[in-house]
Write a structure and sequence with these properties.
It is a single chain. The chain is of the alpha+beta class and about 260 residues long. It has seven helices and 13 strands. α6 links the parallel β11 and β12. The relative contact order is 0.17.
Amino acid sequence: MRQITRYEELAPLLSAQLGRGVVTNAALTAEDWRREIAAGTLRCQSWAGGLVLLRRREGRSLMNFYLRELSLPDDLAWDSPVVLEIAARPRDEGLLRAADFWRGQGFEELYRRERLVLPKDTKVPAGDGPLTARVAEMADAEAVRTLLQDNFDPLTGCLPTAEELERDLASGNVVCVDGPDGRTAGLLHITPGRGSTQLRHLAVGKPFRRQGGAQALLARYLERTGFVRSLVWVRTDNEPGRRFYVKNGYAPDGWSSTVLCRP
């Protein structure tokens, strides 16, 4: 694999993958790719049948792919654990076949997720618990990072890099709840999109659970984003989490995903 050092190197490789029959799990924008290149984290390998891109993270790489055919070059090598997620609807036969293909290449299925959607202009109660929700500030960076590390798998939890977290804090894309003692007790981390937002992480520290923190976070997040349509991916084995979202008006929209890892 070679490292990409300029977007001008990547652009023609991406353009070459445009066309009928190409199967991909990549949904990154040009700005996303440029950030990866600037951070020195993007590597790729291209061949006649496709393109593989790896975004290096601490202890792992996140993989995006474009496949014209379900085959790989003989010299494709992996030098760290690789995490791969494929989102699809039941009619997306190519992506479903791709998931089976990657399983045959040594990727193990870790879990599946289902996407839930909350329609725009939906309001939810904030609850009457003792935890107070607010938009996080830069001063909360260390507490937010600790909550993320304590509550999400470092390999598959899609944790933001330090740079990404700072950018999201500066943009108001993190909401916190404070405990009665003033400590940061929980967080909700989002990614804004066109006409919608995606809820990426929601966690409340163990000493503060069952005190209405998650409800306060959700209500403050929806208010903060103007009650636009909200998306969230929930693990299919996380029944308490799914009940929480459904109780607040979220419903499946037909999308599901498979998370795979090559150790």
